[in-house]
């Protein structure tokens, strides 16, 4: 195959890929709006809402089931379908439990073109505390399921969950890290503070939040001391530099005066 044919086929392949990507985007069910808090405290009540549109854009899914799953506990789902053209509510159903299946989505059977899913429950416990990546749980995972078993993932929404103690410890560690960054930028030696904050993170991940806070506070204090030491050293260096410059000026002035007097003495002897 010559180079011109290769180029032609490569161009056609790129066009085909882009076309398929465009079709996939156009035919997917869309999240038109959501109200999902990104932060949630363990054992507190939590409510989130997700609204879906473009329900029948995929010609293979003109009649399908909506599946929902969550990691919330003591859960109630409320699913409402609406005809946005008229503003009429078509259907409203509630489900208990961490998952549900809602099957009344049919382009021919009703005029619904929007689905609103509300999930209410209790924020679950944190199974594993990790500092580098915030601990999250699944608020709602929504899937489009067609008769026969094929499915498309619509959307997944997650939130960071925490306890009162873990949140306080995480914030204290974050403050210490910020202080370390400032000290390092000022030229301070932050090695001691970095060691303390690493210990704080280890305590955090071991769920020893009180110790994590104590270590993080120590790290912040060490970082601030390092920044102050760097500032003092810089100030001393500036004073030494200014003092050296002043001595040099005095030497130059003194040398000039000495030279001038020597010249005057020479003129006097010649005269």
Structural commentary:
With 271 residues, the protein is α+β, with helices and mostly antiparallel strands. It has two domains: 25-162, Sandwich (Immunoglobulin-like); 166-261. It contains four helices and ten strands; from the N terminus they run H-E-E-E-E-E-E-E-E-E-E-H-H-H. It has a five-stranded antiparallel β-sheet, with no helix packed on it. The protein has a five-stranded mixed β-sheet with strand order 2-10-9-4-7. A hairpin with a 4-residue loop joins strand 9 (136-146) and strand 10. Helix 2 (164-185) runs antiparallel to helix 3 (191-205) and helix 2 runs parallel beside helix 4 (209-270). The longest helix has 62 residues, at 209-270. The chain is elongated, with a radius of gyration of 35 Å.
Secondary structure: elements and pairs:
Layout (H helix, E strand, L loop, with lengths): L2 H24 L3 E6 L3 E3 L3 E9 L9 E7 L3 E11 L4 E9 L2 E8 L7 E9 L13 E11 L4 E12 L1 H22 L5 H15 L3 H62 L1
Parallel strand pairs: 2-10
Antiparallel strand pairs: 1-3, 3-8, 4-7, 4-9, 5-6, 5-8, 9-10
Helix pairs in contact: 2-3, 2-4, 3-4
Short description:
With 271 residues, the chain is α+β, with helices and mostly antiparallel strands. The chain has helices at 3-26, 164-185, 191-205, 209-270; strands at residues 30-35, 39-41, 45-53, 63-69, 73-83, 88-96, 99-106, 114-122, 136-146, 151-162.
Structure characteristics:
five-stranded antiparallel beta sheet, 271 residues
Q: Percent of residues in beta strands?
A: 25-35%
| Apparent shape | elongated
Instruction: Tell me what the CATH architecture of the largest domain is.
Output: Sandwich
Instruction: Please compute the radius of gyration using only Cα atoms.
Output: 35 Å
How many structural domains?
2
Do you know the CATH topology of the largest domain? Immunoglobulin-like
| Contiguous runs where pLDDT drops below 50 for at least 5 residues | 1-6, 8-26
What order do the helices and strands follow? HEEEEEEEEEEHHH
Strand order of the largest sheet: 1-3-8-5-6
């Amino acid at each position: 195959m010559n180079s011109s044919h290769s180029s032609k086929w490569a161009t056609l392949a790129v066009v085909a890929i882009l076309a398929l990507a465009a079709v996939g985007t156009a035919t997917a069910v869309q999240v038109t709006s959501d109200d999902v808090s990104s932060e949630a405290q363990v054992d507190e009540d939590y409510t989130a809402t997700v609204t879906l549109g473009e329900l029948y854009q995929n010609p293979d899914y003109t009649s399908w089931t909506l599946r929902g799953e969550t990691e919330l506990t003591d859960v109630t789902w409320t699913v409402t379908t609406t005809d946005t053209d008229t503003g009429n509510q078509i259907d409203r159903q509630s489900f208990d439990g961490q998952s549900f299946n809602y099957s009344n989505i049919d382009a021919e059977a009703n005029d619904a073109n929007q689905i609103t899913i509300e999930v209410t429950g209790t924020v679950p416990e944190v199974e594993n505390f990790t500092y580098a990546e915030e601990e999250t749980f699944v608020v709602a995972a929504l899937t489009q399921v067609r008769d026969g078993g094929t499915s498309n993932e619509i959307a997944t929404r997650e939130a960071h969950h925490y306890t009162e103690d873990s949140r306080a410890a995480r914030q204290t560690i974050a403050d210490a890290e910020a202080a370390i960054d400032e000290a390092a930028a000022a030229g301070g030696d932050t090695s001691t503070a970095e060691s303390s904050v690493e210990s704080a993170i280890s305590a955090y991940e071991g769920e020893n939040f009180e110790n994590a806070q104590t270590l993080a506070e120590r790290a912040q204090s060490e970082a601030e001391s390092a920044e102050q030491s760097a500032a003092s050293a810089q100030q001393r260096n500036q004073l030494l530099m200014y003092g050296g410059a002043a001595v040099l000026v005095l030497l130059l002035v003194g040398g000039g005066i000495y030279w001038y007097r020597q010249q005057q003495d020479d003129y006097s002897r010649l005269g």
